[in-house]
From TrEMBL:
The HTH cro/C1-type domain, residue ranges: 14-68
Keyword flag DNA-binding: yes
GO molecular function: DNA binding
Keyword check for DNA-binding: yes
PANTHER family, per database record: ANTITOXIN HIGA1, BLL7220 PROTEIN
Keywords assigned by UniProt, alphabetized: DNA-binding
Pfam families associated with the record: HTH_3, Peptidase_M78
Protein name: DNA-binding protein
SMART domains tied to this protein: HTH_XRE
Family: Belongs to the short-chain fatty acyl-CoA assimilation regulator (ScfR) family.
Amino acid sequence: MSRGGVQGFQAERLSQALAARRLSQLQLAGLVGVSPATVSKWRAGNQAPERDALERLASVVNVTPEWFTRAPSSKVLLPFFRSNASAHVAARAMLEARMEWAQDVALALSEFVDYPAVNLPVRTFVDPDQITSDEIEVAAAECRELWRLGRTAVQDLALAIEGAGVVLIREETGISQIEGLSAWSEALGRPLVLLSSDKDNGYRSRFDLAHELGHLILHRHIARPTERERYKQLEVQAHRFAGAFLLPAETFSSEVRTPVTLDDLLLLKWRWGVSVAAMVMRLRTLKILDEDAAQLLFKRRSARWGAKAEPGDGDRAPEQPRLLHRTIELLVDENVMPREAIPRHIGLAAHDIEKLAGLPEGYFHKTGTVVQFARLRPASSDVVVPSAGNTVVPFPSTFKR
């Protein structure tokens, strides 16, 4: 229990802020003007900062002083990372903290709106060895059926995923090794996905999002592995799910000419919204290409275009999240809450909320008309918001095929 200082100081918030800002205790101590030992005591919960120190602390990490007195929401389940194994521990901690802040934003907004119901296939695997290739194909097909996507190319995967109740965040992280992470939130009763926007490649971004969807469906009840081989196994399964979901076996294979050439796959790339590399992997899974033929195509691809880039990579803009963005616009448009009051209500800096919700920079300091994206909840609702009434975010329905 804390002794002295501001009542109700939440030590866990300090750990979260250190991770989110990628600051060490020593660095923070210097910026706040206290000793490293004092920061250590704050973080351990053995002491709380005095009011003036709390104000300096809040200014340094760019949150409100009151935010440090809010009990943190229950942590998201340990995330799956779409990452290079070399990604630094501090980078992972930073992104976990950002995801927890996204959870805070979504929770604060959920006081006023109804999000779309979660609509994902349910799987109860507890061991990755239970998950066969056939199971992955079935899960991907079931997901498409639930979302009424048919068997053709998905036009906007971000829209479909948010329509299924997933909270999606896409922001620049500055961490090239990590392309995304996903986790289930017990506090929200729904999953979150955070995608990196550092690489402005719509094809790769779609595959990353489908990969995270695979984790959420297949691996919800599987403990995060510490062994390298176990981690690779889960990554391979999420990769296979992404391929099966984006490139359904029957329809995709019917469009592939044999013998398979890179030029033919480039034509299909634009139509299906999937990279040539991902299509080669899918054709190998479907046994349309054997291992030798697939490796030959990969070698030719590398020789012609390089290891990573492909022609047309800039032709497709990355798909953007809408749910949190439109929810905030709705609250402003319906006069539920003044624009400048939203950061105070959430407790985070306006800049962080803008990034997490995909709002334009400076949004909370602007005035003007906002386009309405949703309708008021009927007056018969059981839940009432004082003076304004609750609202609903009826997210646009997914594509019907």
